[in-house]
Design a protein that fits this description.
This protein is mainly alpha-helical. It is built from seven helices and no strands.
Amino acid sequence: MNTIFSRDRQIKSMELTVSHAEKYLGQFCSLLASYTRKTGKLRDQADMLVRQLNDFSNTEDPELRTCLKNLAEDLAMVQDYRQAEIERLETKVVTPLKAYGDIVENKRADLKRFNADRDRALKELQKLEKLQQKDPSNRQRISQAEVNAQKATNDAHRSTRQLEETISDFQRQKLEDIKRIFTDFITVEMVFHAKALEVYTHTFQNLDSMDIDKDLELFTGRIRVSDSSLDNQTLLPSSMAHQPSPTLGSSLKHTAESAKKTRNSILQRQRGVEEEEEDEEEEYESEIEAQQSRQSYASQYTQILRQKN
């Protein structure tokens, strides 16, 4: 009869197990849900950065434009990985922790039923003891009180065994779930960071290969004012003012010579233009090849997928 009440230490341990699970798993759930939301905000900020990089790249020269566009594509790809990270965290980490709210509630209900059965058994035993002290000759009432006390005690014993099994199952489930949840958390983070590192390594190489001098040369060419053209414009009127008036014969001779020189200069210019066009074509082709060699990781990854399909 007294064995029910001599197990207060074990019952206290069960209650502490449920209370600690409710407290700490609830805190884990709250913190990891906040972690997931902040990861979503980080993704949104990175998407804004991608848009700004694309807008800025359209205002720049080829080298920087290519590098910035590649950077924007790679950042966008990392955000796709981050979105997958968020979805996996929500499914594999936050949702299972949320489920412990209901699980803990059920265990508290089991503890409450056990305490109710134990209190009922205690009352029946106290009633029997008082009856034996006050009216020991009333065998009928004492006998009935003994039956009631025995029944209540049996219910308490049965409730105790059920509670022990329930709390043991709860502890086993809690251990397995904590192991799986945090293993999944670390796995999700490792996958994301491995993918991001792969992309960022390629992006770093792209940025490092940018030829600043090419863009600087183009920029300098756009803003430079030719000193020789300014000198010609200033010197031409003064030189003409000091030339003597040519005679008719010398003027005709001068005209013929100048016409010949003009034809020769035109031919030279044509040859020069053709050579320049060839050089520009070669330069353009080399630039295209260089830009193709500096594709973003996202572009190369897409090409690989297409080849596989």
